[in-house]
Every structure is written in structure tokens, then in C-alpha cells.
Amino acid sequence: MEAGQATADGTRGVPAWVLGLVPLLLIVAAIGSFSALGGPGLGDRRGPPAEELAVERTVLEPGRIELSVRNDGPDAVSVAQVIVNDAFAAFEGGEDPIGRLGTQKLVIAQPWIEGEAYEVSLLTSSGGTIAHEIPVAVRTPSADAGFYGLMALLGIYVGVIPIALGMLWLPWIRRIPPAWLRALMALTVGLLGFLAIDATLEGVELAGEGSQAFGGVGLVFLGAAVAYLALTGVSAWLSQRRRAGAAAGANGPALAMLIAVGIGLHNLGEGLAIGTAYTTGALALGAFLVVGFALHNTTEGLAIVAPIAASRPSLGRLAALGLIAGAPAVLGAWIGASAFNNSIAAFLFGAGAGAIAQVIVQLAPTLRADGERGLQPRVVAGLLAGLALMFTTGLLVSV
After folding, report:
1. CA-based torsion, 94, 96, 101, 103: positive or negative
2. Of 99, 65, 96, nearest to 82 (Cα)?
3. Angstrom distance (rounded) from CA 210 to CA 345
4. Order of strands across the sheet that contains 53-61
């Protein structure tokens, strides 16, 4: 029958790749011809140009303010004037129009006072106004070895050390009864669920502040989908290699690895926020903040070791899990302090949320006892306790 169909439509003997390529080439040719002819039938565009600029980075140096702007709209934008706190200011860098998705650095000659707030308005050649707010004026730190060392130390304080302390609960977990172990796994799911929600909200907020031409809020969900699918493939690969697993398709060590990866992606986004806040002076680097992050992230170490309570992992494996989960906070702090971008940060926060969601899917079957359909009261209590614990410790963190 297949041979008869091939003969009927005249494609017998034609390679399959050619049949798939011909329509694509015709579509490209049609679009190219339409563009070359200037879009016949569409007529001339009417109305003022759609001018949109997104400020991606602000650098404050003595006597000047540097803004890195990106054209977020379909039309070229020319910056004609700059107003700082209702006063015109001299600037450099706006001589040439900024094309779509193009970037330009504006250097504004403006003496500023540390701790003061400033509102910068960019006036375009067509009369449009783009406003940018600097809540607290603080000199941008120079990116030297000491600066990156400070960011690394801060990342270790809030990422590596708290998770390592949380993993010390492993000997206690090994001695609790199976019923209470399920409740502890429920606590882990509650912790991770809160982290996923928190990462999503952070990503949506950052996406709203960044360039919308790259997708805006859609970047959060794109990052979540990419991370979820990637970890699904990693989970299947681990299951095939180990040839063992729970009902979810992954054994304890594999689940611990997936949890560490998910938490690591979340801490990468957290480090981005820390590094950015430090460079803008919005982060209170005090003992209270360090204690708050430590309490908040210590519970993440508990989430990592809960699935491996029945096994005997080596110290090297435990150390590797802790570094996978906590070290990305250092990398995030470096990126956030030196080359922060709202769109990239939104994508990474979404990736953290997606990774955690995939881990929750893996953990969910372990919450039910054999032969039970519903959840036991202590398991439900564990879920609620995990959410409440993360919410409570989160109140101690102020960025």
C-alpha cells in the first residue's frame, strides 16, 4: 500500500530529506521576495514611532552616571537629552540611533551624593520619555581580586556552609522509623515547593524590570521547561545506570543528586540577587543577614540527605552533593556583581523552579505507604511544616 501511495503522488524514489526541505525553501523564498518588494499591499506605516528603551545596568563613578540601555522596541531610538532630578545634564554616547535590540552606553556628567535617590529621564528625538530610578546612589565597586574574593566569601556564607550544616542531620535521619521518614520526606517536599514558588516569583519580578523583547515573563517559564526536561532526561539516565529505584523511577542516591542540582540552580539565582544588590548598595551586609540566610538554607541540606538515609554514602559523595547545591551561590554572586542582566536572571530563576518541580515529581511517590492511596496525617503535617519553615526563615532575609 505504501508503494502505491508513493506512485500516486509522484514522489517515488525521491529522498525523504528532499521532500522535507522543498517546502522550507519555498517559504524562505516567499518571505525574501515579500521583503525585497517592500511589503506590497501593506501601505505606509502611520503614527509616531514605537520607542522603548530598557536600562540594563547602572554604574556610578565619582561625578558621573553610566547607563547601559537596550532598544526594546521595533523602531530605532535616538537619545536627545537627559534629565536628572528635573535638571538637564550633559551626556555622551547618544550620537547614533540605537537599532532594535541594540545597546548603547550613556555617560552622564552628574555629581551625585552617596545615599541620595535620583531619577534619570531619557528624552528621545521624537519627544518620548523613558524614566529610570536610582533608589540609593552608591559607588559601584571596582572588579578587582579583593572584590571577587568578598563575593566568594559571601556566597560561601549563605550557600556552602549552611547546606553543609544541614547535611549533618544524616545520622539522626537513619535512626527514625519508616513512618517518620515519610513525614521527613514530606517536609523535604514542602521545603522544595516553597523554593520553587519563591524562584518563580523572583523570576517574574526580574523579567518585568528587564528587556521585554527577549520574552519578558516568558523567559521564566522557558527556563523552567528547559530545566524540567533536562533533569527528566538525567533522571532516566541515572535510573538506567543504577538499575534500581523506587516507584518514581530513581533510587536514593539519584534523588539526592537531583535535589542537589535543583537547589544549586536556585542558589545560583539567589547569588545573582545578592551580587546585584551589593553593587547597588541595597544589601545590608551585617551579621543579621548572614544568620538569616544560614537558617534559610540549612534546611536545604536536610532535603539533600533525606533520600539517602538508608544508604552509606562516602564523605566524598556527601561533600560533592554539598558543593553542587551550595557553590553556585558563589558563581551567582560573581555574575550578579559584575555583569547582571535581568533577562538572564529571570531565565535562571525559572530554571531553578523547573528543576525543583522535577525533583518534587520524583519524591512524591515516596510519601505514600505501600498499598495506600491517600496521605497520612503526619505526611500532610510534614508538607505544611516544610512550607511554614521556609516562610519563617525567609522573613529573616532582607535583600
Report:
1. negative
2. 65
3. 9
4. 53-61, 64-71, 103-109, 91-92
CATH architecture, domain 53-134: Sandwich (2.60)
**Angle made by CA atoms 84, 112, 135, in degrees to the nearest 5:** 70
Element (H, E) at 58: strand 53-61
Task: Please name the amino acid found at residue 397.
Answer: V
Residues 6+ apart with CB under 8 A from 336: 271, 272, 273, 274, 275, 276, 277, 278, 279, 345
pTM: 0.69
**Cell output for 182:** 515519610
**Sheet of 79-84: strands edge to edge?**
87-89, 79-84, 118-124, 129-134
pLDDT one-digit tens code per residue, 143-196: 778 878 888 888 888 888 888 888 888 888 888 887 787 888 888 888 888 888
3-state secondary structure of 91: strand
293 closest CA partner among 182, 167, 186, 393: 393
pLDDT of 202-251, one tens digit each? 888 888 877 787 888 999 999 899 888 887 887 777 666 555 444 444 56
Quote the CA–CA distance of 349 and 351 in Å, as a whole number.
5
**CATH 2.60.40.10 residue spans of the chain:** 53-134
